[in-house]
Design a protein that fits this description.
Largest sheet: 3 strands, antiparallel
Bound molecules: coenzyme A
Shape: globular
Helix content: 55-70%
Number of domains: 2
Radius of gyration: 23 Å
Low-confidence stretches: 1-13
Structural class: mainly alpha
Length: 390
């Protein structure tokens, strides 16, 4: 008698009885991971066991990318080999360059990045090979090429000549070089490098979960990364760093900040760059990013943004008890570094490629199809009326 009701409908009817819907999957643990640990209770984030603050203090982004993928920090030899491979893979094909040249100049660079990864899939001989070895090689290729794609589009849409990547520059230096034709002073490069470390990985966030969901059907890495980029674009996720800068530009000057934020709170507006699904008493990445944003602000002789930052932060904490998230300091920091606003989320992509691809490899290693249920609340059973009788 037990098996008369199919397994599927048994689950459905139990769910319906309990009405146990976890909208947004809040608080649901769906799998295990060894890549990072987000600890909201003590405002901490570790990659493979290392606190991010420590990594920012002592490592370059390349070392952290190696760590995220391989589980350990590289020694000198391993780093050298890894950097050589990354630098050798920076160039993009003539075909992809031409495609970027033909893209509408008004395209959002997130869409450019997404399309470029799709094109890379067409060009990569190992696209359909989901073995861990092939996946690691593909991860490195996407990682090395995405900055080149973005650098090219940055220049093309301004009517400037594309600058090819340089092998004697670090990952961060090379990105500045390809966008601006020069490398800024070391404190600015370091602030950028730190932002890449802080954006590299963050557990089962929306885009990573998207990548893992796509992977769970045994689809390929390029497809999963493409989906992750689309997911990151949204303003409730990566797109928030752009929105932060837009709102700071709208506020214009520090003396208008208090009035603006009080009005926004009164009108129950969502203030971009504040709040977090996991951290409810402060995003563990913010103190480090804020320190570097303030350094950049000092170097760039900023008179407004750091003051607006302080006022918004104080009022949000006092009136709503909501803390800033990582996008709050990174947005104005990228602006002061000279990047166009719509390049902020693509920079997030440049960093998060590491986390996404590590999760894709982890998902393949112990896969189970991700397939949740929904409680149906539409029309009851209806009879189809023939077309000529409707
Ligand atoms: C990140 C975010 C989507 C988390 O959402 P969540 O976990 O679903 O939390 P909720 O949206 O339910 O927020 C809980 C409460 O705090 C308020 N809140 C959260 N973030 C807020 C914000 N940025 N501005 C104003 N109020 C906010 C909500 O209005 C809600 O209040 P209520 O209980 O009175 O309705 C949300 O904080 C947000 O939209 N932030 C702005 C976008 C952003 O910066 N995203 C980047 C995240 S790293």
């Amino acid at each position: 008698m037990k098996n008369i009701i199919p397994r599927w409908s048994r689950i459905m009817s139990n769910d319906e009885k309990k009405d146990d819907i976890k909208k947004g999957l809040i608080g649901i643990v769906v799998d295990e991971t060894t890549i990072s640990k987000v600890m909201p209770d003590i405002n901490s984030l570790t990659y493979r066991g290392y606190p991010v603050q420590d990594l920012c203090e002592n490592c370059r982004f390349e070392e952290v990318a190696f760590l995220v993928w391989h589980g350990n920090l590289p020694n000198t030899l391993e780093l050298k080999k890894f950097e050589t491979e990354e630098r050798e893979n920076r160039r993009i094909s003539i075909n992809l360059t031409k495609i970027i040249e033909h893209m509408p100049k008004r395209s959002h660079p997130m869409d450019v990045a997404r399309t470029a990864v799709s094109v890379m899939a067409l060009e990569d001989k190992e696209t359909s090979d989901n073995s861990p070895e092939a996946n690691m090689r593909k991860a490195l290729r996407i990682f090395a090429k995405i900055p080149t794609v973005l650098g090219a589009f940055y220049r093309i849409r301004k009517g400037k000549k594309i600058i090819k990547p340089k092998k004697n520059l670090t990952f961060a230096q090379n990105f500045f070089y390809m966008c601006f034709g020069k490398v800024p002073q070391k404190e600015i490069v370091q602030a950028f490098d730190v932002s890449l470390i802080l954006y590299a990985e963050h557990g089962f966030n929306v885009s990573t979960f998207t990548a893992r969901t796509i992977t769970s059907s045994l689809s390929d890495m390029h497809g999963a990364v493409t989906g992750a980029i689309a997911s990151l674009k949204g303003p409730l996720h990566g797109g928030a760093n752009e929105k932060v800068m837009e709102l700071m530009s709208k506020i214009k000057s520090p003396d208008k900040a208090k009035k603006w934020i009080n009005n926004a709170i009164k009108n129950k507006e969502v203030i971009m760059g504040f709040g977090h699904r996991v951290y409810k008493s402060g995003d563990s990445r913010v103190p480090t990013m804020k320190k570097h944003f303030l350094k950049v602000a000092k170097i760039k002789k900023d008179k407004k943004l750091h003051k607006i930052y302080k006022i918004l932060e104080e009022v949000m904490l006092k009136k709503k008890n909501i803390h800033p998230n990582m996008d709050f300091p990174s947005g104005p920091a990228y602006h002061l570094m000279g990047f166009d606003i719509d390049f902020f989320t693509p920079i997030f992509v440049v960093a998060r490629i590491t986390g996404w691809t590590a999760h894709i490899i982890e998902q393949h290693a112990a896969n189970r199809l991700i397939r949740p249920l929904a409680k149906y609340k539409g029309e009851k059973h209806r009879k189809v009326v023939l077309l000529n009788q409707r």
